[in-house]
UniProtKB/TrEMBL annotation:
<protein>
    <recommendedName>
        <fullName>DUF6593 domain-containing protein</fullName>
    </recommendedName>
</protein>
<feature type="domain" description="DUF6593">
    <location>
        <begin position="9"/>
        <end position="159"/>
    </location>
</feature>
<dbReference type="Pfam" id="PF20236">
    <property type="entry name" value="DUF6593"/>
</dbReference>
<dbReference type="InterPro" id="IPR046528">
    <property type="entry name" value="DUF6593"/>
</dbReference>
């Protein structure tokens, strides 16, 4: 199992470190006129993906020099009100990110087994909480980049949806959902 810790409780601005404390990934978000652009790169500087978060149109991502709508990478579950998203690896194997009890779990659609999970930081105002972290199963560590990228995107989408719902803007999700 591979465990990566987030330096901040933010899926869009953080460093991900391994158990030894070595930086493995860097996530930075730049704010442009109306958009936010999040870049996820390895510690050596190689950019894995760039995501443009747009408030009133489709989010776009660039990976391997190809740009496409984010919905092409993280396909929606067709169930009404579901936040679950599907994605495929290079071999065509299908995985699903699910939100359960405030945590994200990634399930292999073929076996039904959990292969990755994202745990939010466990702190509050009066407690010294532990930092957020991602667990990735040994079955998929060779595709760790893909699972880290999709996990961070899912957590950002989840937070965005919650912020809108808490502010009374649930109607907005009915017309445009990230």
């Amino acid at each position: 199992m591979s465990t990566l810790f987030l330096s901040r409780d933010s899926p869009t601005n953080s460093k991900l470190t391994d158990l030894d404390g070595s930086t493995v990934y860097v996530v930075k978000t730049k704010h442009k006129w109306k958009d936010e652009v999040t870049g996820i790169s390895r510690a050596d500087g190689e950019e894995l993906v760039s995501v443009t978060w747009k408030p009133f149109s489709d989010e776009m991502f660039t990976m391997n020099c190809k740009t496409a709508p984010l919905a092409d990478l993280l396909q929606r579950d067709n169930k009404l009100g579901s936040s679950n998203r599907f994605f495929n690896n290079a071999a065509g194997q299908r995985f699903q990110w699910k939100i359960l009890n405030g945590h994200l779990y990634c399930v292999d659609e073929t076996t039904g087994l959990s292969v990755a999970a994202y745990y939010r930081s466990g702190g509050g105002i009066f407690s010294k909480g532990k930092s957020a972290y991602i667990d990735i199963s040994e079955q998929v560590t060779d595709e760790q980049d893909l699972f880290v990228v999709t996990c961070l995107m899912m957590e950002n989408i989840n937070r965005y949806r919650k912020a809108i719902m808490y502010s009374g803007g649930g109607w907005y999700l009915a017309i445009k959902s990230p």
